[in-house]
Amino acid sequence: MLSKSQLKLITSLKHKKFRQQYGFFVVEGVKTITELLQSSLELQTLFTTQTFNIDAKNEVLISDAELKRISFLTTPNKALAVFKIPTPKPIEDKGLIIALDAIRDPGNLGTIVRLCDWFGVKDLVCSNETVDCYNPKVIQATMGSITRVNISYLNLVEFLKDSSMPVYGAFMEGENIYKKTNLKDGILIMGNEANGISKEVEAFVKEKVSIPRFGSLQQTESLNVATATAILLSEFRRC
Amino acid sequence: MLSKSQLKLITSLKHKKFRQQYGFFVVEGVKTITELLQSSLELQTLFTTQTFNIDAKNEVLISDAELKRISFLTTPNKALAVFKIPTPKPIEDKGLIIALDAIRDPGNLGTIVRLCDWFGVKDLVCSNETVDCYNPKVIQATMGSITRVNISYLNLVEFLKDSSMPVYGAFMEGENIYKKTNLKDGILIMGNEANGISKEVEAFVKEKVSIPRFGSLQQTESLNVATATAILLSEFRRC
């Protein structure tokens, strides 16, 4: 049975402001919730139409109609859980780090989190202008990877100023990534969907890299930032 | 000014059945429409809130309120055009061909069309179970690339039976793509989001390839099919 205050809390968690105020976020679907329950994330409450057989204190059985009222999805998927937003761990100054300069699309961020997980990137650094990773659409797109990647929001310029690692940036007019034989661990910056990497951040880039185009010259569009991240990460890892 | 029959036609084009019946599809947004107007696609009618200065016969000036009524988007973008669905060209038995076995997500198909365009893949072959490429969500995701890739829907098993090209398939347990030095032009098959490549199609695969995972063993998820296509296409082209 769902209380009025629970309904109000969950509905408010659609908005970044309230996620930050309460320190909670929402996850939906049995598969992803099960994965998150096995992680270090702390469950606040699990609302479900069938029991998960976990600590009863945190589990609230609800009807399909109640799930429909709290779900952010058009087709609710049996359960909705509220988890505590974890405190990010300190960023390690080693390995390959992905830095995002104002990525706005939740689907893109979700895909990039999943790619970081796949390619063993421990730290994902997001400029404060990047979409919130606890946005429900991002959470749906990460498929549980969110628990295995350390995501920090910060002032990207200050972060780069303080780092001693090599800094790579993805640019349309960068060096052909396939011809670079000395890709090292460092920070790889991916820019905003419409405007790319901002001028202030570009100032810290030591090596501009790009993915060559093989199609006709007629083409004007760039690759989507998530697919570009996939290809660049693959290039760093295949060395 | 929008007529009742125009409103009815456009609304019906949300559905594959009516797109196939009438032979039309819908494109939205000034940028993508402008790109499509410069292609070989045939315009049926352009509904716009400000003139494009094209042949007046095909342009209908409408109000913002009218655009809102016909648009498939939550935030309509100044114009909506109805184009004729082109007849696919014959598939050339050369170069690199991407074949999709029942891809269901419109965003994934749109991203793959865009990748084909970027990497100079002329023919994209879709099993009849694959989502329709004239679905409005696919069209939005392709960003105009749809005009530069020849997309054919067919019985994939029959197509593979008749082809003499090498057949590659993406599998979780395939050979490490980074270790393959002899990738040749051929057909690369990507499978359904949930079930991968079907048994009937798998029978035609000569070389199974996979993208190695670099993260922790804890991970259970595969890469999203669109990002996997990005990485595999990149590997075929970088040779």
Mean pLDDT of chain A: 94
Q: Structural class, from secondary structure content of chain A?
A: alpha/beta
- Count of extended strands of chain A: 10
CATH architecture of the largest domain in chain A: 3-Layer(aba) Sandwich
Give the helices and strands of chain A as they follow along the chain: HHEHEEHEEHEHEHEEHEH
Q: How many structural domains in the coordinates of chain A?
A: 2
> In the CATH hierarchy, what is the superfamily of the largest domain in chain A?
SPOUT methyltransferase, trefoil knot domain
Quaternary structure annotation: homodimer
Walk across the major sheet of chain A and give the strand order. 7-6-5-9-8-10
CATH T-level fold name of the largest domain in chain A = Alpha/beta knot
Report the uncertain regions of chain A: none
Describe the biggest sheet of chain A?
A: 6 strands, parallel
Q: Strand percentage of chain A, roughly?
A: 15-25%
Essential attributes:
homodimer, 239 residues, alpha/beta, 60s Ribosomal Protein L30, Chain: A, Alpha/beta knot, 2 domains, 6-stranded parallel β-sheet, 4-stranded mixed β-sheet, 9 helices, 10 strands, 23% strand, elongated, Ribosomal_eL30-like_sf (chains A, B), transferase (chains A, B), methyltransferase (chains A, B), MRM3-like_sub_bind (chains A, B)
Task: Please characterize this protein's 3D structure.
2 copies of one chain form a homodimer. The model of chain A has no long low-confidence stretch (mean pLDDT 94). In chain A, the strands form 2 sheets. Chain A has a 6-stranded parallel beta sheet, with helices on both faces. A 4-stranded mixed beta sheet of chain A has the order 1-4-2-3. Chain A starts with a helix and ends with a helix. Chain A contains 9 helices and 10 strands. Chain A folds into 2 domains: 4-84, 60s Ribosomal Protein L30, Chain: A; 97-238, SPOUT methyltransferase, trefoil knot domain (Alpha/beta knot, 3-Layer(aba) Sandwich), CATH 3.40.1280. The first copy, chain A, is an alpha/beta fold and 239 residues long.
